[in-house]
Amino acid sequence: MSIRTILFDLDGTLIDTNELIIASFFHTFGQYKYQFTREEIIEFNGPPLLDTFKAIDAKKAERMVQTYRTHNMKEHDNYVKAFPFVEETLEQLKQNGMKLGVVTTKMRQGVKKGLATTDLEPYFDTVITLDDVKHPKPHAEPVMKAMDKLAADAATTLMVGDNSHDLEAGKNAGVQTAGVAWSFKGKERLMQYKPTYMLEDMRDLLTITGV
Question: 11-60: per-residue pLDDT in tens?
């Protein structure tokens, strides 16, 4: 069955926020006197922030989230840009009648800022954020909610992401999945989760969908 709906993770998939994320973690850990290497911080990228900080210090976790977000929003525009070929690919998919959505573990304020900064907001028919669900990825709920908003069928839906949480959420929702080779954690790590497809660059979606 041909793909008619594509759901995308945001950070690390559509927009390059990798260095912003690392800078925000370093800033936060510096404020709270924790020391982590760059490699360790890369591993924190993906799950909801509160979960990450709770695992480090449950008592300070909410304050750490606030510190991180304040820094992240302040520095956002100095770092963030779309990955190569993202906008032209989205434009072509949209012109060919594809339903497009974003499914992310970020809060809506940050998501809107990221989409606005990169001029990608007009391409999406729905955006599901951390604010919209009880159970974030890898739970199926965010993917299911996006499909519901788009009146999409699981058999013709593809979830695209740079993290294990994205692929697991897609599988849990019964949709096809695509990893991205530009994942900060590396293509080989993603291959362990057996995505239906692996994108070498975003234009591969045009071949996969036949548009």
Answer: 999 999 999 999 999 999 999 999 999 999 988 887 889 999 999 999 99
Amino acid letter for position 135:
H
> Which residue type does 38 have?
R
Task: Pick the catalytic residue from 9, 11, 132, 166.
Answer: 9
Query: Is residue 105 within 8 Å of 136, Cβ to Cβ?
Result: yes
pTM for this prediction: 0.89
Residue in the structure block whose two tokens are 């100095």: 78
Active site includes 11? Answer: no
Distance from C-alpha of 180 to C-alpha of 191, rounded to nearest angstrom: 10
Closest CA to 123 of 208, 31, 205, 32: 205
Nearest to 131 by CA among 117, 148, 112: 112
Query: Concatenated DSSP letters for 78-147?
Result: HH-EEPTTHHHHHHHHHHTT-EEEEE-SS-HHHHHHHHHHTT-GGG-SEEE-GGG-SS-TTSSHHHHHHH
